[in-house]
Design goal:
With 87 residues, the protein is mainly α. The chain has five helices and no strands.
């Protein structure tokens, strides 16, 4: 995967926005251009989400679950365990 800097994300996004006047123009992009744009958008969203705080109630729920796991009251299952336990 290509690591994109904030600067390169901005340049790529500006370039695509300038090239695409509407959604129909996106259809004209090559697969490579579309993938690069998706990577740039994903990288930008990831950077913004890292700086964003979630709702306090979500943090409380996660903290409670972590405490239950740490105390042994609950345990984590990996996806393969869960899949095989389903009917």
């Amino acid at each position: 995967m290509v690591r994109l800097t904030t600067r390169s994300v901005q340049r790529l996004t500006v370039g695509v926005v300038q090239a695409c006047n509407d959604v129909a123009d996106l259809a004209k992009l090559s697969l490579r251009e579309k993938l690069r744009l998706l990577e740039a958008i994903w990288e930008d969203l990831r950077a913004r989400m890292d700086a964003m705080e979630g709702p306090r109630k979500h943090r409380q729920i996660l903290d409670e679950r972590r405490e239950r796991i740490d105390s042994g009251e609950a345990k984590l299952l990996d996806w393969d365990q869960v899949k095989h336990s389903l009917p």
